[in-house]
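Homework help board

Subject: predicted structure for assignment chain

Our instructor gave us this sequence and asked us to write out the predicted structure in token form, then describe one feature. I got the tokens but I'm not sure how to describe them. Can anyone check?
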Amino acid sequence: MDLLLKYFPNLTQLQISQFSQLQELYKDWNLKINVVSRKDIDELYLRHVLHSLGIAKVVQFKPNTKVLDVGTGGGFPGIPLAILFPETQFHLVDSIGKKIKVVNDVSEGLGLQNIKTTQGRVEEIKGTYDFIVSRAVAQMETFVFWTKGKINKKQQHPIKNGILYLKGGDLSDELKKYTSATIYNLPDYFAEDFFETKKVVHLPMKFKG
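My token output:
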């Protein structure tokens, strides 16, 4: 928790309480199914929670913003972002039923009212969203194909609606064709060694017409 407060000092008491419950909730679930890798569970706040909140260093979601989290797994980055932005609506999607079960249980345990979940493929999801977030579930080209047509055209943020993708390593080849992409290096925001090669890629969606 000290790590979170170092970078997000203005958390409310409710947010502090919700974030501090995450470790126990995930530890409990990890005894049943492997939601978070065994080596990561002890560093949950660094490797999962703070990493997810890297997106919040790029954009502050406004009330009633709609965010789709694709391939959420155990709820990252969606659940930490939902705690941080309680007035933003999050839709967490994963094709694996037991992972969505974990997300539902953790959300319920924290009393989060701004999360809905779907077990299924993102291509089957109807509706549009201001932003689509994810943690490296596929190559960018594949991800763009999966999420085509799901970005809302109405803008309300300083950065354009589109994809906010948590990625690591050298992305020069993968992003070669996406000249409008902006890369935000997480070491610019977080000092820990874990973030050395971590990035948030913002890919604004273009619209014809």
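Reply (TA_rk): Your tokens look well-formed. For the description, you could write something like this. The two ends are 47 Å apart (CA to CA). That's the kind of observation they're looking for.
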